[in-house]
C-alpha cells in the first residue's frame, strides 16, 4: 500500500514538473523570442565630410536613445570590408554603383538601406582658372576605382576633351572605352585620397567631394567644372549586410541621418558642394 502511494506521488510530481516546464518554455518564448533592440551601433565612414556628417548624426541619434560610434577608415575598400566581416554595423560614405561593384568583385552581399546626399565630383586646377584655359596635351588625374573613374571620364566627355564608346553605362566606363582624344590629354589614375595632393603636379585633378572638402576645396567656388546633380545615379547611401535592413536600431540611425537637423547642417556647412537627397 505504501509502495503504491509512493509511486503515485512520484508520478504526480513528475507530471506537474513537466507541465511547469512546458509553461516556462512558452513564457520564455513570449518574453524573449525577439531580441532586444540595440542601444549602440558602429557606423563606418571615411575621413572628411563623411566623418563630419556622421558625428552630427550621432548627436541626433543620441536624443532618440541610440548611441552611434563613428569609426573612420583610411580608404573605401576598408570600410566595405569591415561591414562585410561584421566589424561594423553600417557604413555611410559611398554611392550605390560603387557598392554594386564592390559586391561583384568581392562576392559580398551588402545592401543600400537609405539614400543620403549627392557629393558631386569636380575638376580642380592650380594652374588654370577656367576650362577654356586648359591647353591641349594637359595632364588630368582621375580616381582609379572603377565607378568614380567612370564619373570622371563622363565629365571629360561632356567637355569634349575625349569621346567615349557608345552604349557603355557611365558606371562601367574605363579608359579602354575612350575612342578619341581630340585634346590629347594625358590621363593619370590615382587612389582617390591622393588626388588633392596631385594638384601641384597636374593641370587638372578630378576629385571626389569628400576628399576635396578635406583639402579645403568647395566644388561650387573652387572648381573649373562640376558634375551635374540632375538625374545622377551617384547619390550616397547607408549600407548594411543583407538580412539586417529592418533592424530597429539601423532604421533609427537612418531616421537620424535623414533629419531636418542634418539637412540644415549639410546646407550650412558645405554650401552646395554636398546636396541632401531628402
TrEMBL record:
SUPFAM superfamilies hit by this protein: Periplasmic binding protein-like II
Lipidated residue numbers (S-diacylglycerol cysteine): 23
Signal sequence region: 1-21
Membrane topology designation: Lipid-anchor
The keyword Signal belongs to this UniProt entry's keyword annotation: yes
Record keywords: Lipoprotein, Membrane, Palmitate, Signal
InterPro entries xrefs: Lipoprotein_NlpA
Keyword Signal included in the entry's annotation: yes
Record's subcellular location: Membrane
Superkingdom of the source species: Bacteria
PROSITE patterns: PROKAR_LIPOPROTEIN
Family, as annotated: Belongs to the nlpA lipoprotein family.
Descriptive protein name: Lipoprotein
The organism of origin for this protein: Sutterella seckii
Amino acid at each position: 500500500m505504501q509502495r503504491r502511494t509512493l509511486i503515485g506521488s512520484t508520478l504526480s510530481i513528475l507530471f506537474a514538473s513537466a507541465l511547469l516546464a512546458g509553461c516556462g518554455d512558452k513564457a520564455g518564448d513570449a518574453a524573449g523570442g525577439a531580441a532586444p533592440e540595440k542601444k549602440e551601433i558602429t557606423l563606418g565612414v571615411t575621413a572628411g565630410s563623411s566623418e563630419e556628417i556622421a558625428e552630427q548624426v550621432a548627436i541626433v541619434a543620441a536624443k532618440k536613445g541610440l548611441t552611434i560610434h563613428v569609426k573612420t577608415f583610411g580608404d573605401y575598400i576598408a570600410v566595405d570590408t569591415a561591414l562585410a566581416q561584421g566589424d561594423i554595423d553600417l557604413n555611410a560614405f559611398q554611392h550605390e554603383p560603387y557598392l554594386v561593384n564592390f559586391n561583384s568583385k568581392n562576392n559580398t552581399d551588402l545592401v543600400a538601406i537609405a539614400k543620403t546626399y549627392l557629393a558631386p565630383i569636380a575638376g580642380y586646377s592650380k594652374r588654370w582658372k577656367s576650362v577654356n584655359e586648359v591647353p591641349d596635351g594637359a595632364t588630368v588625374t582621375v580616381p582609379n576605382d572603377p565607378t568614380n573613374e567612370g564619373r570622371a571620364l563622363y565629365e571629360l566627355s561632356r567637355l569634349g576633351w575625349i569621346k567615349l564608346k557608345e552604349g557603355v553605362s557611365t558606371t562601367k566606363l574605363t579608359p579602354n572605352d575612350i575612342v578619341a582624344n581630340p585634346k590629347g590629354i594625358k590621363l593619370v589614375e590615382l587612389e582617390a585620397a591622393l588626388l588633392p595632393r596631385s594638384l601641384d603636379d597636374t593641370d587638372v585633378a578630378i576629385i571626389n567631394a569628400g576628399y576635396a572638402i578635406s583639402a579645403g576645396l568647395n566644388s561650387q567656388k573652387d572648381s573649373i567644372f562640376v558634375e551635374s546633380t540632375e538625374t545622377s545615379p551617384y547619390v550616397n547611401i547607408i549600407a548594411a549586410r543583407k538580412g539586417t535592413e529592418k533592424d530597429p536600431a539601423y532604421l533609427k540611425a537612418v531616421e537620424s541621418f535623414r533629419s531636418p537637423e542634418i539637412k540644415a547642417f549639410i546646407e550650412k556647412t558645405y554650401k552646395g558642394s554636398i546636396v541632401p537627397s531628402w
